[in-house]
Each structure stands twice: as structure tokens, then as C-alpha cells.
Hints:
The chain is an alpha+beta fold. The chain has a single domain (about 5-145), classed as Hut operon positive regulatory protein HutP (3-Layer(aba) Sandwich), CATH 3.40.1510.10. About 35% of the residues lie in helices and about 30% in strands. The protein contains 4 helices and 4 strands, in the order H-H-E-H-H-E-E-E. Strands 1-2-3-4 form a 4-stranded antiparallel beta sheet, with helices on both faces. A hairpin with a 6-residue loop joins strand 3 and strand 4 (about 135-145). Helix 1 packs antiparallel against helix 2 (about 20-30) and helix 3 (about 45-60) packs across helix 4. The longest helix has 18 residues, at about 70-85. The chain is globular and about 50 Å long. About 30% of the residues are buried. One of its GO terms (molecular function) is mRNA binding. InterPro entries: Regulatory_HutP (IPR015111), Regulatory_HutP_bacillales (IPR023552), Regulatory_HutP_sf (IPR036482).
Amino acid sequence: MTLNKDLRIGRHAILLLLSDQPAEQMKKLEQSNWKGCVGKVGSMDAHKVVAAIETAAKKNGIIQTDVYRESHALYHAIIEALHGVTRGQVQLGSILRTVGLTFAVLRGNPYINEQEGEWIAVSLYGTIGAPVKGSEHETIGLGINHI
């Protein structure tokens, strides 16, 4: 089980997220048979963040809607990324916090051996803070899970 250093899925998910030209970045990744998307979400409710990312992944064909293990893998990658954004406590509105995030979802095989299968990564970047304009700071999170 050896990672292909050129195909580190977490690194590429973050680069896609922070890219000024995500469409061009995605074209390069598609050459390695990877799928991905970028989107935005803002909310005081963690479940709305999860729902927005799941919806984008389904609409862009990154996961199959009728295969539970794919939705399950995506869910865990999202929650792991949210742990980074929220510093370990995935709570927003209930403790008067709100987020404004850009997200990237990336699916592919980061290993040299194709039998290792596909993985999914979710990266989040944006702001978190009190629901008052100017009372936020930057935040970032990354979650990776096997499918």
C-alpha cells in the first residue's frame, strides 16, 4: 500500500478549494480519472452544511445516490472536515456561531496499486464566528475517507 505522491487526495482537495481557476485544476485531475466539484455554503446549522455538500456531490456524479457506502463515506469525510473548521466541536447555531465556507469534494485512487480502490476527500475553507458581520476569522478543514 504505497501512496502515489503525485495523487495525494487531501493535498489536491485543498489545492482545488483554494485555486483561482478551479475548472482548470479539475481538468488536470480528471486526466487521472478523478471526479470533483467546488461549491459554497453558509449557515448557522451544521446539518445544512452537510446537506449542501452531499447535494453537490450527488448532482455532480461524485457519488451514486443509490449506493449507501458512498453516501456513508462522504458523510464521514464531511464530518471530519467540519471538526477542523469548528475545532473539534461540530456545533454552530446552538453556541452562536456561523460559517461561510467554500468546499471542494474530490474522488479518486491515491495509491499506486489500483486494487486499493477509491477514496473521497472534502476540504472546507472560509470564515467562522459570531453571527455579527466582522466577528469572524478564517478557518480550514479536511476530511478523507475510503469508499
